[in-house]
Every structure is written in C-alpha cells, then in structure tokens.
C-alpha cells in the first residue's frame, strides 16, 4: 500500500435527533465495515452523534454532557475493537464551557480519543435554518494530518459562503477538502451542490468530498447524494440519493491525477420529488413510533396520491382509507376511492357523514361557508377518532395550491399530524400521480425504496394503474355543495400555479407579477387569497396565540427526538 | 426659556405592524400635542413607523420602500404644519442598499428632512426575538446635538448587552442617553428594566430616557411603563403601564441636578397580569378586525376567567358564551355558566352535545380516551360554527398547567384563534378570578381599561361577584366521564404548578428537580406528561409537518399587519 494514498469511506447515514446511543451504534457498525474494506478515514454527516437539527436541545446541559460522553465512549469502543487506527470523522455538539452557546463541531476519533475539533464558522439563519440562535461560531480553519497528507475540513454552510475557513484553507496547501453536511432536500439542489463543490475545489486547488446525511427529520428531508469532485469539475464519486450508503474514494499519491470511483445513477425529476415525499413520511413514522396511517379518501387526486405515498412508505396493509361521503358526493368519487384502496391493498371503511351533518344542523341551522366547513370538520373528527382508537398517524391531504389560497377548512381537511404533499402544487400532484402509475406498469422501484404494486399480483391485483385514471382526469371539486368545482373559486390550476410560484417562491410583488405578464385581475385575486389564507393559518394554529407572560416562552424542541431528560 | 434646557415629550404609543399610514398619522397627532406643550424633542418607540416586530416583512423591498417614503412624507408634513423645529425621534426600517438585510433604525425628523440615522447594534435572537435573522447590525454609536446638548441614542437590546454603543457613549460626554424600545411584557420585568436603566445611566454618567411601546401585537403584549432615571438611580419620571401616554421630562441646564417629574402609580401583581391578558386580547381583536368573541362556557374556572377578560376587552354584549353540556355535565356546572353569562351581560346559548355524540357513536363505537376526545371535538366543531357564521373570534380557554401536561384535546378544547390564559398556571387562574371579583366589588378600574360590571347596575345586575364562587371553589373536572376529576390524572395543582415552574420556566433537569425537594414519583410523572404533550403539540400543528421541498419555506409574516403588497 502506498502510504501516501488515503482511502476514504463515505458513510451517508440516517441519524435520529437525540438518539445518542443509536447514532453511536450506527457509527460503530459503519466504521467496522469501512475498516474491513481497508479505509483509512471514514466520514459521517454533520452532527452525527446528536442528529441534526437539534434546535433547543443545544441549550440543555444534560444533553450536551450526554453527547460528550457518547463521543468519548465511542472513541474508546472503536479502539477496543481494534479500530483505533481508523480516523472516524463525526459531527457533534461542542464542549466549550466559557461560551454561553455550544458549537456545531467536527471531531476525529482516533486511537481511542476524541481528537481535533473544528467548529462551524458560518451559522445559517435563513429559511429553515436557525443555527445562529443556538450555536456560537468557530473562528479558525483546521487541517487534519493523515499519512502525511493534509485534509482541510469544513461544515456545510462554510462552503456556501465566500470567505471564512475555505478561503483560509486555500492558502494552507491542503490535499483534500472534506466537508460534512446536513443539507435538506430541495428540488434541483443536487446540481447546485455539485456546482458549488466544483467552485470550492478549484478555490483550494484540491478535490472536495461532500458528505451529506440522508433521511427524514421532523419537517425536513435530507437526500444524501454525497459526492467527490476534482478542482477541474470532474465528478469522481457520487453516492445514491434518499438511502443510506457506504461508498469509497481514494486520494491518489501526491502528483497523481485524481482517481474516479463509482457514480450512482441520477433520478428523473418526478421520481426525485416522489421519493423525497415517501422517505420523509417513512422516517417520520419510524422515528416517532407510528406503524400505520389513516386518511380520508375522497376519490380525488390529492388523497389518492397521499395514499399511494403512504402505501409506498409503510405497506398498503398499514394504511386505513376512510371514505366519508356526503349528500354531495358523486358515485364516481366513491368508486374511485374504493378502487384505489383495493389497488393499494389498504383497509377501506365507509363512514357516511349525512346523518351527522343533519344532527348538527337540527341544532345549528348553518348555511353558506359555515355549512361547508361543518362537513369538512365532521370528517376531521372521524379521522381523529380512527387515529386515537387505532394509534394511527393522521395524514392531511392538502396540496400547496389549495393551502396557499386557503381552499381548505381549518380543523377540517387540514386535520393531521403529517401532510405529505403540502409542498406540491396541484399541477405537480397530477404529474406525480401519472408518474407513479407508469412506474407501477414498468415494475421499476422508486428511488431504491420498497414499492407497493410494482409487480402485478403483489397484493393479488393486477396493477395496471395504482391511482384510478378517473381521479387524475376529472375536474377537481371539494364536493361540499351541489355541482361545486375548484374553478368556481380559484383560477385554473395551470395559471394559478405559475402565479403562486412567482408570488410565494420568488417573492415577486404586485408590480413584478404584472411585469411577469399575468393579468391584473388574476394577480389581485391570487394575492388577496394568499394573504388572507396566510393570515388565517397564522391566526389559527393548534396552540393558539398567547400573551407572552414570563411563562410564555415555548421551548423549540425537535418533534422527533429520542433524548429524554 | 433657558436654551440649554431640553423638554422631552415621551410618546408611549400603540402602533400596528405594517400600518405605515396609520402609524405616521399617530406620530403627527402626538407631535402636534408635544409642540403645543413646548417640547423640544418628542420620542416614539422602536420601529414606530413600521410597527414591531415586523418579522419577514423586513425582506420585502416593497415594504421597505413604502416605509422610507412614509418617513420622508412625515418629515415634510411636520414642516408644513410649522413643526419643523421639533425633533421627532422615531424608529423605522433601514435604507442601506448594499447590505442584504436592512437595519433596525432610529431617525430624527427635523426641518422637513429625515435626519441622523442610528442602527441597532445588538440584534436579539433568543426567546421571542428573531432579529438577527432579519436585520443587519449597526456598528457606530451616535450623538444627536440639540440646543447645544449631546443626546446619545440606543435601541432596546443595545442597553441589555454590555459593551457596544452604550460603552462607546460613556466616553463621548453625553448629557442624556435616549433609548427607544419594543420590550414585551413579562411579569416583574418593569423592575428589571428600571434596575438596568440605572446601571446604564451610571455607566454614561447621564440621565437615561427609556421609551417603550404599548399594546398587543400578535402573541406579544407591550406594557409601556416608560421612565427616566438619574445616574444615581433616582426615578425622575414614570409613565403608566398598558395604555398610551404622553408625558414630559425636562433635562435641566448644564450643571443643574436632574429634575423629577410625575410618577405613575404602580399596579399590584394580579392587576398587572390580568391587565396584560385583557390588553393583549383587546388589541388582537381591534388590529385584526374582530368585534366579538365566542367561547365554550363549561361552568369551570378557566372558561369563566376567559369570559370575564373578554367582557373587559370588548364589552359583555360582544361575548357569545355557549354551554355545551353532555350526559356527564353536572347541574351545578350548567347553573354556574348561566350565572356567569348573566353577570357579564354576555349572550348565552345552550347546545347539548349528547345527540351529536350518540350519532357519532352509532357509527364509530369508540371507548376510553377516544370517546372522551370525541366529546371535546364535537364542542370544537360547535364553537367554530359560531365563529364562522357570526364572524366571531374563537377563544381557547386552556391554562398553562393543563396544556403543559397535555390535559387537553387537540382539535377539541384547544380550538381557537386566541388563548388568553394559555400562560397562566392553574393556581394563578384561581388568584386572578378572586382578584377580579374583588375589583368588581371595590368598583375600581383595571389598569386604566374600561371594565365590565365595576359598578352595580352597569348591566342591570348587582355585581357582588362576577365569577360565580362555585366555579372558583369546586374541584376541577373535565366532565368527560362520570365522576372524573383532574386529580385522577394530574398531581394536585399546588404541587404541579411548582414542578412546572421549575421544569419549564427554569429548565431544571431531573437531578435538579430532585435537588429542589420534589419527590421522585411526582417528578417522573410531570416530566413524562410534559415531554409527551410537547411532542403531541409539535406533531399536530394546524398546518401539519411537511417535507421541505423547494416550495416548503414558510414566510414568517405577522398575523396582525396592515401591509398588503
């Protein structure tokens, strides 16, 4: 073996926030495999031991102490197993005692000790990130020496900002730049990361290793897709997306051209988004101890897609679909719901709401929107009854277009603990439904996940279509009054979704939207609906607004967390 | 007039986020009054023109531009009215164009122009504050010269942190330190601010003016209580709490001892908390356009106190109390609810839930907790039906103790857009109910707010007690099964509230709680309940968890905001 070569193992794992022992066990298991395959260095994602993001757990002294003990014990365990030679690079929470906030830290475990600490310099505080609130920043770059080679290190945001540690490392003659990341999935972000990686590799004039975590954590999905890239932009290694993985890449001896390794196949855009939704739900269930889900099946496309995703996440036999027809439900809708449940191998119950609606109306005599909301809320009560009595996770089936416009009933169809398609515009919902049906016909897997009905007969039915075509092609309707259509209240979805993308995603103001070429009436309608819906949504959280007395501070802790003290 | 003297007007006003025109109109009105009373300088709270806190409105270019135009126009309007001599100190959003984030800025309007900008240095990012996320910090202290005297300025957090602008001003020979604030209410915080003010006044060796905003804004209540304090700790002026105010204080000529002005009376602790709750609700209603409220009246103490607060906020005739008895409701409870509504002059409807419960049960056959939750959810549907059909704000009546322990039903009694007593422990609820009855008997006002029933006959009933004594003294029960008592599931409230204060408010871990002297069984019970409830609450938000695709970013905008673009 050329002592100048370094064999890196890229351990793209799925951690759980607060599960210090479980995360450490997984590190040990992957380190064993890496050592068996002759790796010199095994690299894990940002905040490996604690999970990421830890939110206000950072403030708990008991948590920080437990994390430090875990790192110490893990280093000792590795050495005891004869793995002391291996450099095990993990992320964890910092130990500084003279600072009021801890650090987001990278450490190397080697020869039985916790060695070499680097603290994240840039603490992101935008979008879904809140790190400046809970961490104190590091101020120095760090170079790790292994086999006489110089490994510069950085953590996630450090490579997204100019200056700071990467710019320092450019002057420190490093052989490789190693970055550990907890970078949440966004559509198209894989390419953005590779472009960025190429830029930073060129900046430091050395290959860059980008190691990302994978898996769902609360409202985030991490997509993995780790890679190694050369300073000239050549991709040297690419790990798969949306699954745990252990891949290898070797830094060649000094003066040699960088060696290429395996490149995992890329996903098509629909498969990528669908898989992200399924993985998010699957991990949310697993990490929170849910083994089944319940949702209302209306016969419409939204609940159909959510049911398919749920079946892909946990198996059709763990999905309870409840049809809750009213006096306004069409026969077609009821048939479509039943067909879907059969295709998925899901449980299927029918709970008519007309008798309940009449019982309320004999007391309340509601009309208009109040009467429409009443129907949705009766369904919400039924879904929660299934959730409570069977211990199922209730799924909300709203899509981004209708939620953005407030075309949804608070405490009604909005009821649920998880909303798998809340971020999909309606036009995307249709696309994914078609894509899912085609995947079933092709019999192909979905981003490596186990899939329901991908071969005929897996649930005793030939799955030429999973989602009934009628659910995809019929005009969308809430069916809360006779003959109601979404288009009575909203612009056609093709147009609406374009305006929503510009207004919400790209923060275009009214003048910008008109300059985009949208007509004035549509712009004003959509802006009014969105602003009103946002106000309603903020106004009616489950835990309603409170006056902030001394006692009013909410702790912000992860939903999914195994840490209890 | 001694030209060396400066007469300050302290304009403690209630602004509304995003209501640029309305806020500017109010500044103009107070400036007129101040000029009429011969003030040289009139001081307004932090972020006067924009309202505070503005959250993600800071990111909107249309909003920032509109705010700058408002400041320009206001300066011109002041000059046109002949008020150009007056120095008008207001807060607003910064104008810097080369920074990605705007500033939290203080400006002086004088002689028709926007003059002298100081940018907040310390951007709080803890507890309810999120400023580092939306603002860029200033880096220089500023001294404003008026009549040859030197006025150092600072914004809110700048005086809470050591170092920074105050420490710079200590070396700049200032005559007075002027601070503008948006400091939210916490119990006992008034004294903390005065102690801090004294410390900073001593540091700069000059009197300190502390000008705070007043009023409710979303989930915060600002309590006013502006003051002026001498370097030796003598209070020179104190404005009232929980109401708008215009007071004066004169900085004496050089070499003179500081002059004292009027000191508003202090409130007793129960009155302070009660008034904070009422003001928060009152402003939330006014700023969001609600003219009435609906709540379930169970006959218990929580709904009774909330109803009394609501009547104090908007008048009994704008309160709809709905009694929703079940087969488990006692006659006493129904009588207490009716008596309360009569005392308050509130609307009172009875909506029995037994027929509805039976209708659901004929389909669902629930038992145990699922059947208990069903009752609470039927009530939630009824409250929301009133809210929808009459345009009323639904009030949730849960207290801190039961919410912390999860003794509450999601989508049931937790339904509502505002929760006036969510931050009051149960023992405090009882105290405030007793205090409110005594205030009614004394016929005194409540923190300067208009009060229902503070003299007999105001609603045609003699108000010897507003809240029925029986509601205060009977053992608390959810009445969801025969003979149920809170104490079946929870420790006695005297003990529970002490453990909750230690565990939640003071973040004591298990070992700390045992060292506090609580017994092991109680500690473990309470920790288990609280952790489980927190998990449930985070898990079932109204807008459920989503996978974070590109579209997943939520805008964080104020609920109460008048800005629409």
TrEMBL record, chains A, B:
Pathway given in the UniProt record: Cofactor biosynthesis; NAD(+) biosynthesis; NAD(+) from deamido-NAD(+) (L-Gln route): step 1/1
Residues annotated to bind ATP = 296-303, 397
Catalytic reaction annotation: deamido-NAD(+) + L-glutamine + ATP + H2O = L-glutamate + AMP + diphosphate + NAD(+) + H(+)
Q: List the Pfam families hit by this protein, alphabetically.
A: CN_hydrolase, NAD_synthase
Instruction: State if Membrane is listed as a keyword.
Output: no
Task: Show the PROSITE patterns listed in the entry.
Answer: CN_HYDROLASE
Residues reported to bind L-glutamine: 126, 183, 189
Residues annotated as binding deamido-NAD(+): 373, 402, 536
**Keyword Protein biosynthesis included in the entry's annotation:** no
Supply the EC number(s).
6.3.5.1
Question: Which GO molecular function annotations are given, in alphabetical order?
Answer: NAD+ synthase (glutamine-hydrolyzing) activity
Q: Where is the CN hydrolase domain?
A: 6-269
Write the record's keywords in alphabetical order, separated by commas: ATP-binding, Ligase, NAD, Nucleotide-binding
Catalytic residues per the record?
A: 46 (proton acceptor), 120 (for glutaminase activity), 156 (nucleophile)
Task: Return the InterPro entries for the record.
Answer: C-N_Hydrolase, C-N_Hydrolase_sf, Gln-dep_NAD_synthase, NAD/GMP_synthase, NAD_synthase, Rossmann-like_a/b/a_fold
Q: Which SUPFAM superfamilies match?
A: Adenine nucleotide alpha hydrolases-like, Carbon-nitrogen hydrolase
Give the protein's function: Catalyzes the ATP-dependent amidation of deamido-NAD to form NAD. Uses L-glutamine as a nitrogen source.
State the PANTHER family in the record: GLUTAMINE-DEPENDENT NAD(+) SYNTHETASE, NH 3 /GLUTAMINE-DEPENDENT NAD + SYNTHETASE
Q: Which family does it belong to?
A: In the C-terminal section; belongs to the NAD synthetase family.
Specify the protein name. Answer: Glutamine-dependent NAD(+) synthetase
């Amino acid at each position: 073996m050329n002592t100048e070569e370094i064999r890196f193992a890229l351990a793209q794992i799925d951690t759980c926030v607060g599960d210090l022992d479980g995360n450490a066990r997984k590190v040990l298991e992957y380190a064993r495999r890496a050592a068996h395959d002759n790796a010199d260095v095994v690299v894990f994602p940002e905040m490996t031991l604690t999970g990421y993001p830890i939110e206000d757990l950072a403030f708990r002294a008991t948590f920080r102490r437990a994390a430090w003990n875990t790192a110490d014990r893990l280093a000792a365990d590795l050495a005891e197993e004869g793995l002391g030679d291996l450099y095990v690079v993990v992320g964890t929470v910092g130990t500084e005692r003279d600072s009021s906030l801890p650090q987001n830290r990278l450490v190397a475990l080697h020869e039985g000790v916790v060695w070499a600490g680097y603290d994240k310099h840039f603490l992101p505080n935008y979008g879904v990130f809140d790190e400046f609130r809970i961490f104190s920043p590091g101020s120095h770059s760090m170079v790790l020496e292994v086999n006489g080679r110089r490994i510069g290190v950085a953590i996630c945001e450090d490579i997204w900002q100019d200056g700071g540690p990467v710019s320092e490392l450019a002057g420190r003659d490093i052989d490789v730049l190693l970055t550990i990341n907890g970078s949440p999935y966004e559509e198209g972000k894989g390419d953005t990361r590779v472009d960025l990686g190429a830029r930073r590799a060129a900046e430091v004039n050395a290959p860059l290793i980008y190691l990302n975590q994978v898996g769902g954590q609360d409202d985030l999905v991490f997509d993995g897709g780790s890679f190694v890239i050369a300073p000239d932009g050549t991709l040297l290694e690419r790990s798969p997306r949306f699954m745990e993985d252990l891949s290898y890449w070797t830094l060649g001896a000094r003066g040699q051209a960088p060696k290429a390794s395996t490149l995992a196949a890329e996903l098509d855009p629909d498969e990528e988004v669908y898989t992200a939704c399924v993985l998010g739900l699957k991990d949310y269930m697993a990490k929170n101890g849910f083994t089944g889900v319940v949702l209302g099946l209306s016969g419409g496309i939204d609940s159909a897609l959510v049911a398919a995703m749920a079946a892909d996440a946990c198996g059709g036999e763990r999905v309870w679909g409840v049809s809750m027809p009213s006096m306004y439900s069409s026969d077609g809708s009821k048939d479509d719901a039943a067909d879907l449940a059969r295709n998925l191998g899901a449980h299927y119950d029918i709970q008519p709401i007309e008798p309940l609606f009449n019982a309320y109306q004999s007391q309340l005599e509601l009309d208009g929107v109040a009467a429409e909301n009443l129907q949705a809320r009766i369904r919400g009560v039924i879904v929660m009854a299934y959730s409570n009595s069977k211990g199922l996770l209730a799924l909300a089936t709203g899509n981004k277009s209708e939620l953005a416009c407030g075309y949804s009933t608070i405490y009604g169809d909005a009821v649920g603990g998880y909303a798998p398609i809340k971020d999909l515009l309606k036009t995307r919902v249709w696309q994914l439904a078609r894509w899912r049906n085609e995947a079933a016909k092709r019999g192909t897997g979905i981003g490596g996940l186990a899939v329901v009905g991908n071969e005929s007969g897996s649930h005793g039915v030939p799955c030429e279509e999973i989602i009934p075509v009628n659910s995809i092609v019929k005009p969308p309707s809430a069916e809360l009054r006779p003959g109601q259509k979404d288009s009575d209240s909203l612009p056609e979805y093709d147009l609406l979704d374009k305006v929503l993308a510009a207004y919400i995603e790209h923060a275009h103001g009214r003048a910008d939207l008109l300059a985009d070429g949208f007509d004035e009436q549509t712009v004003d309608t959509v802006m009014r609906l969105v602003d009103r819906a946002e106000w309603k949504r903020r106004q009616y959280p489950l835990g309603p607004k409170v006056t902030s007395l001394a006692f009013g501070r909410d702790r912000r802790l992860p939903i999914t967390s195994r840490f209890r003290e």
